[in-house]
């Protein structure tokens, strides 16, 4: 069965600093990969997704992620953190076949220090 | 646009009581999902409905039942609530049952079982 590991349940950065949130998946066959963001008391919103093609994926709010098959990773980055980026971030995968059953990582809570 | 609407937003139950969580989407999506979110565990799939008229178990189906009432609505029922079912429940929907279409989430139902 698929599994997703997000390294670090809490990440804290200063405003203007680089944001790096790590995600590794277990499948030997490249799955579909997603990053979602959750603001307090809200549902999840899609940040970006990787399906096929270009390995560097750009999303909303200045975030991007790079798919590295050799490392089974899909880390999320943003060059310069903003206070509004404070939220919980989830990496998720689904197999290319089947009913798009998402498997989520445990989440990383991002705190931005002024 | 409403997107995915969940009712109620909050609920407190006593052990052994039953209740139904409602979910409706207005995006003409084919597939719908129920997840539970627990601290440090990300989101876990309870049940899903790939298309109207079908339902299937996810990762954690025990203690729950679902009904795909029509294309718009997908309900989750707790027949005899247990404290272990205290959680935040999210409904999601997506257009395509396979592939890379992102899921759209409701704002959640916060359920406490005493």
Q: How would you summarize this macromolecular structure in one to three sentences?
A:
The complex is a heterodimer of chains A (114) and B (114). Chain A has 114 residues and is an all-beta fold.
Helicity level of chain B, as a percent range? under 10%
Order of helical and strand elements of chain B: EEEEEEEEEEE
Overall pLDDT confidence of chain A:
91
Q: What is the strand content of chain A? A: over 45%
Q: What proportion of the residues of chain A is helical, as a percent range?
A: under 10%
Q: What is the averaged pLDDT score of chain B? A: 93
Q: Main sheet of chain B? A: 7 strands, mixed
* Series of secondary-structure elements of chain A, N-terminal to C-terminal: EEEEEEEEEEEE
User: pLDDT under 50 segments of chain B (min length 5)?
Assistant: none
Terminal-residue CA separation of chain A: 41 Å
Categorize the overall geometry of chain A: globular
Rg calc of chain A: 14 Å
Structural class of chain B: mainly beta
Spans of at least 5 consecutive residues with low confidence of chain A: none
* Number of H- or I-type helical stretches of chain B: 0
Number of strands of chain A: 12
Shape of chain B: globular
Total number of beta strands of chain B: 11
Give the end-to-end Cα distance of chain B, rounded to a whole number of Å. 35 Å
Defining traits:
heterodimer; A: 114 residues; mainly beta; 6-stranded mixed beta sheet; 4-stranded antiparallel beta sheet; 12 strands; globular; B: 114 residues; 7-stranded mixed beta sheet; 11 strands; 49% strand
Please write out the topology.
The complex is a heterodimer of chains A (114) and B (114).
Chain A: E1 4-5, E2 10-14, E3 19-21, E4 24-25, E5 32-38, E6 44-50, E7 56-58, E8 64-68, E9 73-78, E10 87-94, E11 103-104, E12 108-113
Parallel strand pairs in A: 2-12
Antiparallel strand pairs in A: 1-4, 3-9, 5-6, 5-10, 7-8, 8-9, 10-11, 10-12
Chain B: E1 4-7, E2 10-13, E3 19-25, E4 31-37, E5 43-49, E6 56-57, E7 64-68, E8 74-78, E9 87-94, E10 104-105, E11 109-113
Parallel strand pairs in B: 2-11
Antiparallel strand pairs in B: 1-3, 3-8, 4-5, 4-9, 5-6, 7-8, 9-10, 9-11
